[in-house]
Design goal:
The structure is a homodimer of 242-residue chains. With 242 residues, chain A is an alpha/beta fold. Chain A is built from 7 helices and 12 strands. Chain A has a 7-stranded parallel β-sheet. Chain A has a 5-stranded mixed β-sheet with strand order 1-3-4-5-2. In chain A, strand 4 and strand 5 form a beta hairpin. In chain A, helix 2 runs parallel beside helix 3 and helix 2 packs parallel to helix 7. Chains A and B meet through strand 10, helix 5 and helix 7 of A and strand 10, helix 5 and helix 7 of B.
Chain lengths: 242, 242
Amino acid sequence: LIRLHVEADLAAGARVEPRQEQAHYLVRVMRLAIDETLLVFNGRDGEWRARLTDVTKRGCALAVEEQVRAQAQSPDLDLIVALVKRARLETIVEKAAELGARRVRLAITERTNADHTNVARLEAIAAEAAEQTGRLDVPQVLVPMPLAMIFAGWESPDRRLMFCDEEGDAAPAATALGAAEGRRWAVLIGPEGGFSPGERAAIRALPWVTPVTLGPRILRADTAAIAALTLWQSMLGDWRGA
Amino acid sequence: LIRLHVEADLAAGARVEPRQEQAHYLVRVMRLAIDETLLVFNGRDGEWRARLTDVTKRGCALAVEEQVRAQAQSPDLDLIVALVKRARLETIVEKAAELGARRVRLAITERTNADHTNVARLEAIAAEAAEQTGRLDVPQVLVPMPLAMIFAGWESPDRRLMFCDEEGDAAPAATALGAAEGRRWAVLIGPEGGFSPGERAAIRALPWVTPVTLGPRILRADTAAIAALTLWQSMLGDWRGA
């Protein structure tokens, strides 16, 4: 069944009008016919079965019928990622959605030289990946912010930070996370050129940091992000099983 | 320093002539000048410092000077991956190199409908990723083979198979691998459409199989491959630390 993320409230009997490009996707690309069903979710009301009821030149309408899954939240996991080149950043956002991160925070670091970022496009990628991966919410993508400001506004020392430190003298990630606790976490991935020595020292001095290493080889930023989220989910998140 | 994978034997005083496109990369793209140094490796003789000695219209030559690292092998880990679409398959080969797999075996499954694969291009991607990630060998890429033939020719029951089973009733990967042993392994990643019920039953009946799950969400093939290799390296491979 097709899954569609919508903005509207969902309840039995509700009528939903997907955005124009979503209507195009349903009717033209997937050739959904009147009375055929799909799944819809909005990140608040769980997942619902809906039926295509109207197709017009400019859009379509769905009738919401029955809830098939109650709302559930992804683990409280942020991915903080330095701005990297566009293609790789888009991959990272897609993978963060698949791997169950709740928010993606874009960080400007000393060795970042990306001048602009299309956050709306990253949000669309996150929504599409959420549709495909089967989750009930879409990771939020925040506008880029200097890394130091992210730390200055850190909500609470209860949110731990998994720092993937390329210098290699931290504990292996699985070991460090296996001995760790806490329900609120963030994963920090640096830019392609790494953090400056000053940044690295400042990060390692944070009271809520858990430095980790991701093996003996140099990883690209997208690989490091996927590996780090995988290990967090496996040691502390919802990959641990029931 | 630039790292270059070459075919030639490496020893102090050896002269190496990189391939034409490598020479172009060194001289035109990276603008390496005469007498500047780089690192070279061939998968057999360790890593050597070399010096650019000659530049001609058609190529260049390097003088091999001093070994800087002795040869070391990656863990004995195969990635067996069903043929998927070209872009995603290329990503998987790149990531297999970064994550330290020794061989990539391409499998034809019931739900595979890729008609041709450019193995030479995948080998080039593997070599380039090996250069960037700092490893001393390049993963071998084998020509596509039906999955049943791969199993029929399985070298020994001592090579365990980590089967990423999308049905979700296997143990979490970190748990299953944490209780596992063995030095020779393979990781099996299915096609986008999954394995057929018959294939899945046949795989689970193999005496050397360890079925695992990769969390509650649906993962694309490239995400699953990176996650599985990460968890294997963390639980059984060279990410465990000294």
